[in-house]
Structure formats: structure tokens, C-alpha cells
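REQUEST ID: PR-0412
SUBMITTED BY: lab tech R.K.
PRIORITY: routine
TASK: structure prediction, single protein chain
INPUT:
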Amino acid sequence: MVRREAKAPSQRQLRVGEEIRHALAWALERGEVRDPAVIDVPITVTEVRISPDLKNATAFIVPLGGGDEKAVQAVVDGLNRASAFLRRMVISQVQLRAVPRLNFIPDVSFDQASAIDALLRTKTVARDLLSPPNDADEIDGAEGADDDRQPDGS
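STATUS: complete
OUTPUT:
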């Protein structure tokens, strides 16, 4: 199986994604979506990623103040139900030949950053960061590298 490297998004993808993000944020801020799961829930659109052919867009959202996983999923489901309506709102705001299909997913990057931050603040990590390097470890590491040689000396 051949594994392809993911290409970085083009400038056009980034620009279109940002314009769609602004249009979605504007519609959500004004309370245009009437789905019960979305009404009166302040939502942040953190990022919009566009496919290279500009036909599909994935919007990453976070309800302001977070919430439990069930509540976040309910908001995401409500936005996915309202995606056709939001797509029409984007058409009126963004000048594109064809507006991409919208898909909403929760943005977990803030949760991951919090988990990493909490890990870095643990006593064990703080102790390791404050302790000076041990010269004996460096010498042992250098000697260990020589042990990898073949018996013929190469």
C-alpha cells in the first residue's frame, strides 16, 4: 500500500476557507439558524478546511464555554441539519462559482492543548525540566553507540 503525503493547502484554499469561516460566524452570531440544538448557544467557528477541488468544506466548531461531549455533539448535529440553509447564507456572502458542501465537526484542538498543558505542569515533568543534564548519561550514550559496530570493526 502506497502512502501519500498530505499536501499543504493552497493560498486559494486558505483564502476561501477564511471567507467561509467569516460568513458562517456572521450567520451564527446573528442567530440565523433556528435548529433547537443551536438556538441560544454561542458558537465559535475556529477553522474551515476546503478540499483541493473547492467542493467540500469542513467547519470546526466549539460552543463557547465548551460543554460536555453530548452537548457539543448535539450542536454539531444541529449545524449539520442546517447545513443547506447555512450554505445559502454563505452564497450571499462569498463570491464563488460554486459554494462547497458544508460539514461540521467539533474542534478538539483546545482539549488536546489543555491535556498537554496539564501534562507539562505535572511535578514529574517540572522536575525533569529543572534538573541539569547528567554528563555520565552523555558519556554512556556515546559508548553505547560504539557497541553497535559489527565484529569486523565497521
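NOTES: Residues 11-108 form a domain with the GMP Synthetase; Chain A, domain 3 fold (CATH 3.30.300.20).
REVIEWED BY: pending
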